[in-house]
Design goal:
The chain contains 7 helices and no strands. It has 152 residues and is mainly α.
Length: 152
Amino acid sequence: MLKRYTKKIFSETIRDLTSFGNPLILVILAVLILGGNLILGKIILGLVAIELFCTLIKILYHKNRPVNEAYTNMMERINASSFPSLHTARSSFVFLILFFIIPVYPIKIISITMIILIGTSRILLKKHYLSDVIVGLLIGIIFSFIWMEFII
């Protein structure tokens, strides 16, 4: 009974962690940390750019998820595509920007930890393969460096 309860708690925790790759949750988090300043708008713009970039990749290259998802139209096909991991790209983008612009050491540790946990959660939930998460991470890193250099 304890083993089943522990497994349930672990599964729920992994599911909840992955929600930090959701754009709405990331925007709410950024608002809570940064307030309503100009950087927030630039982060939202970056999230939109990542969404469009990854969607274009998914349109041009479809890769089934570890647990196949059925689809009957183009929108469902894009959503059923595993490559690249949008959750990982979005979360690494936002958490890396927070890492660079907030000089508080605990925020830096939390940012890196969240990037690792969200990517890992996507694999554990069987939504992505390791390669999908790695490419999502690279997209998030590239976009965060572009944003830090030219946008923010």
